[in-house]
Cobalamin biosynthesis protein CobD
Amino acid sequence: MSLSDSLILLTLALAAEAAFGYPHRLYTWIGHPVTWLGRLIKRLDRSLNREAWPFGRRRAAGILALLALLAVTGVTAWAVGALLGPLGLPGLAILAILASSLLAQRSLHDHVAAVSKGLREGGIEGGRRAVSMIVGRNPQSLDEAGVSRAAIESLAENFSDGIVAPAFWLGLGGLPGAALYKATNTADSMIGHRTPRHEAFGWAAARFDDLVNLPASRLTALLILAAAVLHRDASPRGAWRAVRRDAAHHRSPNAGWPEAAMAGALGLRLAGPRVYGDVRIEDGWMGDGRAEANADDIDRALALYRTACGLLFALAAGLALLAWITAR
């Protein structure tokens, strides 16, 4: 698939996912690509991650598991593209529908909006229930401001690794590029943790995920900054200042970029110390605004997010048109 075809595929996939999301009936019927990848990762974890093995051997097994996951994913995605490619426009349309399942614009918006609704209609307990669906931290440790910040942080970070990153690799490498990214990101979320079981085995998945998310996290910050230009109650200057000053102080090499941009744009403080389970994680603050966020701030963040998604679509469509004209 040529670069112009990949960019056209990206544009169609973004439009399809924004319009329809991933239908619940389809999920009930056949599951979702992430669930398929998850089953393969669990099988590799069970068969290759032996607790009796020394650290170095478990790390080597984790590298082998990641390579196996990427090989299966890449070959499958390439085969699907090879089968549908010769069909012309109908094949491209089917590929776009398949590729749209690797993006999460609509579902991310709905999950974060549910936190705002939960706070408004069910108070702190309603907000905690809703935010527990999208973050790993202990919801019982969160007050209203903590729930609101957690939702906004999740929106910013997942905009990067759930939308911009798969879109970036889809535009660059077609369906195989997006599928390989999604496999890497899913592996990181499942085994890329510093726990006794996965510190060695998940090392390769975590480091590779950091690498493939580098370009998208920076692009996401720019999209949020550009979206802030179009909103009266947002500050592009604040977003730029927060990214330059704070992004590098986040414990993640990538999450700090979109979170700092969102914090600065909204005049908030995000990230900082937080509790996962019973473990307190010390982290740098993103932004220098107020920490007392609320449901209104979640709604402001969602408005920025919708605009940023529109800008991403416009960028993809513009690049697709440019590549198509150049290829003629």
